[in-house]
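STRUCTURE REQUEST FORM
Protein name: TATA-box-binding protein
Source organism: Tetranychus urticae
Requested output: structure tokens
Priority: standard
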Amino acid sequence: MSSNSHSYTIDNIVSLWKIDGSIKLDIDNSKRKKKFNAQVIRKSGVFLVFASGKVIATGFKDVTKAGATLQEIYPDNKVSFVKVVNITAHSFVPYTFNIRELIDSYDDTTYEPEIYPAVYIKLNGLTLIYYSTGSIIITGAKELPQIDDALAQFSRRTVQMGI
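Status: completed
Returned output:
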């Protein structure tokens, strides 16, 4: 994928699904300290299947792949998409800039190198995590245009601070 300012790659999409009809769950809590009322199914990604028919899918880079895999697991039931919960992507900044100036210029930016070696930037409900190597992790998106907008805004902020 790419935005006007940076290309990016989708790493994970967490999505919510609904399975109609009755489903039989095989929940094994013998190895857990606390009870967990969902069946964990690992197939191309991970599904948490609840008795209510709600399913959380993670570990997929494409929502349609999650739906197709879930339909394979439950071929006798109707599987329907509900919503995207979170999209995580990564990108790379091909230029250097003054990190201290970024931190001092914007209130939505935090940096605590003693705790974690990255700058956290909150932009329109998304979190961008910038490393000094130029890598950026984007999380919190529900739609791809949100990632495009956040990267474009990040670029506008940082390109003027170039070293």
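Reviewer notes: The longest strand covers residues 79-92. The chain has three helices and nine strands.
Form closed.
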